[in-house]
Model the fold of this input.
Amino acid sequence: MKAFYSDHFVLPLPAGHRFPMQKYRLIHEAAVATISDIDFHEAPTTSDGVLALAHHPHYIAAVSDGTLAESVQKAIGFPWTPQMVERSRRSAGATIAACRAALTEPERIAINLAGGTHHAFADQGAGFCVFNDAAIAARLMQAERRVQRVAIVDLDVHQGNGTAAILAKDDSIFTLSLHGARNYPFDKECSDLDVALADGTGDEAYLSALQDALAGMLGRFSPQLIIFLAGADPHEGDRLGRLKLSFDGLARRDAMLLETASRHAIPVAIAMAGGYGKNIQDTVAIHLQTITLAAHFARQHSAAQRPAQPG
Done:
């Protein structure tokens, strides 16, 4: 299984900043140490032309030049630096590369070890998100004539508001968001299918809602690719999550999505999305659990492609 990383492009954040930038390095190191059959690649960058599939050219230029309005930079939540620009381009590039690999490799699954920047709108960023990697990648896969129909299944605890807004009038890309009803963003957009959950929702209620949501999506839409935002922030130990999923519940969530995709022969590209654990090692463990499960499914898919050996 191919995995794409960009953790060596580090944002120089001020002391005390609440974004856990170090989690990406820790996820990469943990995956290298524990999963032997992952093919790691540095994330490629993304050109202005590709970014423009989902973003306005004036916004791309302002991000690149460091001329964003102060209010927009504040909404993003990062100070402007050249590293912010390059990391954001690479994060989108990693999701693009994961989509291409999922559609062409026998494993049928690939991973961006970052990404899931779903709060970025066409003309501005927000919530630690500069460019919307899922929207960009979905449209590029269509532009490259690899697929016609893409589903973005967003299981971060926060609604994928930027994704929903960018793709609101695009019937060829289905947006599904399962999120906390009273969590950020407080002004929600309309996804193709939104499932808003109460604070304190635990494993069984969450998994039942997800099962219904996946069935509802597939009853209305036939994706040729799923981009899966596998947020760690529904975990009960997350500082920003407000749901009550356990490690086991999150593993069952990932397995449900991957089993559904496998049953319908749909390739899957995974992005890590959010995770703000009170203990950063919990966040890393949740993301590593997602990667480990994906590698398991990838092995199964790859084995199924091998020709039978004569007896």
